[in-house]
Amino acid sequence: MSDSDDRGRVRRFRKWFVIAAVVLLVGAGGYGFWQQYPAAMVGRACGGMLSVDPFLELSGASRLSLIGSDFEVRKRTVGVPPGVLGQNCEVGIAEVVISRADEQHSGLRYRAYASDDFPVPLEAGWSGFVSEANRFASVMVGCRNWGSDEGAGFVVTTRLLSPASVPDPRPKLVRAVIETARSTAEQTGCDAWLGEDADLAVPEGTTRSTPAAEASGTCAGMSSVETVRETDAGTALIEKCELVGGLELTAMYGHFEKNYTNGLDVSASSGADTTYFWTSATCANLLGGAFYVGERKYGEKPLADAELADLQRFAQQSAARYGCNPPEPIDRAR
Predict the structure, then answer these.
(1) pTM
(2) CA-CA-CA-CA torsion for 24, 29, 31, 35, nearest 10 degrees?
(3) Residues contacting 97, CB < 8 A, separation 6+
(4) What angle do CA 310, 322, 271 make, to 5 degrees?
(5) Which pLDDT tens digits describe the chain residue by residue (334 residues)?
(6) Which of 180, 141, 162 is closest to 286 using CA atoms?
(7) How is residue 189 annotated by DSSP?
(8) Which one of 68, 104, 298, 327 has the fewest beta carbons within 10 angstroms of its own beta carbon?
(9) How far is Cα of residue 319 from the mean position of the Cα atoms in its chain?
(10) What CA–CA distances, in Å, run from 33 to 19, 25, 57, 75, 91?
(11) Order of strands across the sheet that contains 276-282
């Protein structure tokens, strides 16, 4: 074999070696570059359990919008319990929490009791709600194969940190929490009680003002005022009924109850003062407990017997929907 043949083989080897090296470097660089796309960033956030598309759509980001994009993902750790079900992250304009159903999570609270933003119950067999102001959504999932040591289930909650880019964010919010709940159940081995398709779960209604005698939702049976403001009655984890010109009644379950009562002097199961009164119930399921509170929205008039009776009725009706024990009778002396 001639020297020219040897040199030819060496040149061909060098050529293919260079090509292979370039392909390898481009591939590695391309993979790293791909990881900076918003879709990949969301896919890695919160333990990899998020549903990617609805979170991108809420922020107005496409899967491939990289150049000039200010889309960011950040992990949060304040108040997050440890473990797989201890996720708290920001993805674009949304904050997300995935936690055990029985955990108190201090990093994200829905203060329905302090605002006009009513929680509207989800439909299609889901336990959860989307806020009337379209800024907050939450869903709870029970797990047949989990015991109390594992929390018996989990909650997925999303809060918008700034206005959404879509005109009606409610379907995206609902889809975000429901599809993330499905993903979480799959990744954690939860044999879950799940509802139907996310699109079916989006509630059409919001709140309504109606004569108290005609109320059929969260304010059914109220009699201390002439007009009430209510939503449909469901298993929303938080419920509200406004006695117009009177009290604002709120029911809270699971970790929403724990967040509200943390730090309050509510050691008694029920009680009352001039402007504030409450009762509670125990629930033989993953909810653990329930708290029902009545607060005067305007003024400081003394509580009337009819108002106390309305809270008791509100609490009893709500507890029955969730399978909880009857709430404690309210005693003014406590």
Answers:
(1) 0.81
(2) 170
(3) 80, 87, 88, 105, 107, 108, 155, 156, 157, 158
(4) 40
(5) 555 555 555 455 455 544 444 444 344 344 343 345 788 888 899 989 998 999 999 988 765 655 435 678 887 654 444 456 778 899 999 999 898 887 765 445 565 444 568 999 999 999 999 998 888 999 999 999 987 777 788 999 999 988 888 888 999 999 999 999 999 999 889 999 899 999 999 998 889 999 999 999 999 999 999 999 999 999 999 999 999 988 999 999 887 887 777 656 666 678 776 667 889 999 877 777 899 999 886 666 777 889 989 999 999 999 999 999 999 888 765 4
(6) 141
(7) T
(8) 68
(9) 21
(10) 20, 12, 21, 21, 19
(11) 208-211, 227-230, 238-243, 247-253, 289-296, 276-282, 270-272
Q: Residues 266, 317, 239, CA angle at the centre, nearest 5°?
A: 65
DSSP string, 219-284: TTT--SSSEEEE---S--SEEEEEETTSEEEEEEEHHHHHHHHTTS---SSEEE-SSEEEEEEEBS
d(CA 266, CA 101): 21
Q: What whole-number distance in Å separates Cα of residue 235 and Cα of residue 318?
A: 8
Strands 238-243 and 276-282: unpaired
Provide the residue ranges of all domains of the chain, joining segments of one domain with +: 38-201, 208-322
